[in-house]
Amino acid sequence: MSELVTGEAVALELRPARLPSRALAVLLDLVVAVAAYVVVTIALVAATASLDDAAQFAVSIATFVLLLVGAPIAVETLSHGRSLGKLACGLRVVRDDGGPIRFRHALVRGLIGVVEILMTFGVIACIASLVSSRGRRLGDVFAGTLVVRERVPAAPTGFLPPPPPWLAGRFSELDLSAVPDGLWLAVRQYLTRMHQLDPQVGWAMAERLASDVAARTGTPVPQGVPPTAYLAAVVQERQAREVRRAFGNGAVAGPAPTAPYESRPAMPPYEAQPAMPPYESRPAAPTDAPPAMPTAAPPAERPATEATGNTRPTGFVPPA
Q1: What's the Rg (C-alpha) of the chain?
Q2: What is the DSSP letter of 172?
Q3: What is the per-residue pLDDT across 83-121, written as a single tens digit (0 to 9) for each?
């Protein structure tokens, strides 16, 4: 792995491509370019048969430059560093800071590649890749680029080994609240990779981690318990506590049970209400004489006003 630092001061761990994969990618690109060059050359020879030798030579040179130099530059620029051969081999050209390349990077790589790959049949490029610690050829050095692997095989996921059955539930009363997260992470990493370590180194590391965990919990490691089994049992106890804390003692919370249905007392029988007294009709008015209309009261006399010459009419009428 090669550590690259971006402009934002972020360290990137990239795996540089080595000489065999790079040589295979270049070979595939050359095969495609040469096949296209042969096809285009045959077509141009048939089309320029009427021209003189100088014109035919100029056309062939232009075809060579366009197909074997310009086409790879254009492909790397448009695909951000992935030509056909690199795409087949899972490679990619990136800048020194891990970013995608641009036209100037592809141009420098393509022009120098004419000398170190085409003219010398790849001898200079192979020597430069073997000397460089990151497998870079001269074109990568001058352009400030690096060829990295995109398809990295995924590492197998870590599997935590279970503790021995005779240790199940033995540390249920252990206080694990003082153990920091960093120590838990170190214990998990050791348990997932302990089979890849040297036995003596792994045993010493297990003893150190077990003593650290015991010092944090305040309870020493029981006698006769191997440190690896102790760490596995403690990690399993912590996971069980996390599960109980998350799911409430392992039972899924559901709706509260309802009380059994109790029958209500029967309602008292309906009692008839006392009957209303019968409606008494009023005597009808005589129909011979029409009903007397009420007479209006005579209007009250208005107070007389003194007619004087000094008074002026106001248009206000005093109430009756």
Answers
A1: 51
A2: T
A3: 989 989 889 999 887 788 999 999 999 999 889 988 888
